Amino acid sequence: MSQIIRRLGVAPRHRGSTGGGTCPDIFELVDGNFAVIGTDATDSLDAQLPEDAARADYERIVVISRETLIKAKADIPDA
């Protein structure tokens, strides 16, 4: 089972989310993987994936705001 060890970037409230409706977020997991909270855009983006990209049935295409990723950049490990 995965476990969250830390948030990358700042909390959504520091990016203007006060009502909990727009809370994209990025978390590092204990196993070194990352979990993302974002908007499910699978239906609209799936057909636009490049030919060399694939998505398993259990995977979703998730969109996060540019600001969320930029604020997380300093916390993303280089290796």
Structure description:
This protein has helices at residues 42-45, 66-72, and strands at 4-8, 25-29, 34-37, 39-40, 62-63. The model has no long low-confidence stretch (mean pLDDT 90). Strands 1-2-3 form a three-stranded antiparallel sheet. With 79 residues, it is of the alpha+beta class. It has two helices and five strands.
Secondary structure blueprint with pairings:
Blueprint: E1 4-8, E2 25-29, E3 34-37, E4 39-40, H1 42-45, E5 62-63, H2 66-72
Antiparallel strand pairs: 1-2, 2-3, 4-5
The beta-strand count equals: 5
Rg, please? 14 Å
Structural class, by secondary structure, is alpha+beta
- Strand line-up in the sheet with most strands: 1-2-3
Summarize the biggest pleated sheet: 3 strands, antiparallel
Form type: globular
Portion in beta strands: 15-25%
> Termini separation (Å)?
23 Å
Q: SSE order, as H and E?
A: EEEEHEH
Q: Helix fraction?
A: 10-25%
Low-confidence stretches: none
Q: What is the tally of helical segments?
A: 2
The residue-averaged pLDDT reads: 90
Name its key features.
79 residues, alpha+beta, three-stranded antiparallel β-sheet, 5 strands, 14% helix, globular
Question: Would you kindly provide a brief summary of this structure?
Answer:
The protein has 79 residues and is an alpha+beta fold. The protein has helices spanning 42-45, 66-72; strands at residues 4-8, 25-29, 34-37, 39-40, 62-63.
